[in-house]
Amino acid sequence: MLYSKNMSELTSLECPECGELFNHEQLQTICTKCDSPLLCNYDLVDYADSLDKEQISSRPRGLWRWHELLPVHNHDYCLTLGEGDTALLPVPRIAAELGLGPVFVKDEGGNPTGTFKARGLAVAVSRAKELGAKALSIPTAGNAGGALAAYAARAEMEAHVFMPADAPLVYQAEVAAHGGELVLVDGLIDEAGRQAALQTEANGWFGLSTFKEPYRVEGKKTMGFELAEAFHWELPEVIIYPTGGGTGLVGMWKAFSEMEAMGWIGADRPRMVCVQSEGCAPVVKSLEGGEPRIPPWENAETTAHGIRVPKVYADRLVLSAIRESGGTGIAVSDDEFIQAQAELAQQEGIHTCLEGAATLAGLRRMAASGEVDPSERVVLFNTGTGLKQMNVI
Ligand SMILES: *Cc1c(COP(=O)(O)O)cnc(C)c1O
Ligand SMILES: [Zn+2]
Fold this sequence. Notes:
By secondary structure, the protein is α/β, with parallel strands linked by helices. It is 37% helix and 16% strand. Strands 4-5-13-10-11-12 form a six-stranded mixed sheet, sandwiched between helices. Pyridoxal-5'-phosphate (PLP) binds at residues 115, 117, 143, 210, 242-248, 306-307, 353, 355, 383-384.
C-alpha cells in the first residue's frame, strides 16, 4: 500500500502575526483576531524520525508524494490531475549571452490547466472537500479560475468564478469548459474579490481567494521541495519569481524552513527576487521604500494578467520572505517581457507565459548591474504556458 490512512502530519493552524491557534479540523479562513492569513503547522520532528527524504524521492511522481507535509488526512480526498514534478530546464544559450553561470527555468507550464495555479487548487479543493465544503468560489485574474473549475469538476463540487470582464476569452472559456459558473466583473481582481466575498457569504459557499484560506499556499509550497530535491538538497543561490499575490514566494519560503527543521537542508537560502510589471508593482515599491506594509496600487495595468494584482493580501509575509532572504524587487516593462518571451521560445524552445518571461527581463537587469555572480545558480519561474496567451497581445 502506498499511503497509510492518516497521511498528514498537520497539527494546527496558526496566525503568523498574533500567534493565535485555530482548529485545523474545521474549515477556516483568516485570523479572527487580526485578519492575517493563517499558516499550517506540521509535526516535523515526528515525520523526520519516521521517514527520510530519499524515500519520498522514490515515490511515484506528483505533488502528493509530499503528502505528510500537506494538509489532507484521508487519501480518498487527494484529487489529482497530474500536477507537480514539472521540468527544471537549463537555458545555456541565454545564460552565456548574459555572462552568467547556470541558469534554469522551472517550467510550471507543464501543470494541468497550464499553470502552477493547479498546485494550490489541487490541495485547497481536496482539503475543502475533506472538511465538508460543498460549493467553492474564487476571484481570479484568469488562471486560478480555470484551475478551480477543473479540480471542482474532479471533486464533484460547484465552482463559482469571479473574473474581470476584460480577462482574455481563453480564461473565461476554460471555466465554462469545466462547467463552472463564470461571473464577469467590472474592475480588476480586487473588485472581483469584493463581489466573490459578498456572494460567498450570501450563498454559504467556501471561498478560495488567495491567502484567505490556509491551503493554496501549501500546494504551492511543493515547488520549494522539488527545487531542493533537484539541486541535491543544496538550494540555488537566486530564485526569480513573477509576483502577484505572492503565494508561491511565501510557500517556497515556508518549505525551506520546514526542510531545515527536518534536517533535509542547511541554513543557506536563495535570494528571493520578486519581479513585477512597471504598470503594477506594489511589492517592488514597498521593498524600495522600506515600508512595513503594501498599499494598493492605483490604476494597475499590464498585459501579464497573472501579476495584475494591485492589492497584496499577505503583504507582511511576502515582504518578510524577500527581506529575510536578502532578495530584492524589480519592475520591468511590458516591452521587456514580451521580448524575453520571444527569446525563451526561440533560443531555448520554452514557450513561457508573459509572467514567466518577466523573470528573464528581471535577470537581464540584475546581470547588467552585477547583482548576480557567474558562480551562482539561478532559477527563473515560468508560472504558465505561453499557449494560453497566444492572442493576448
Ligand atoms: C497567479 C499567477 C502568478 C502570480 O502568482 P502568486 O504566487 O500569487 O504571486 C504568476 N504567473 C501566473 C501565470 C499566474 O497565473
Ligand atoms: Zn492573528
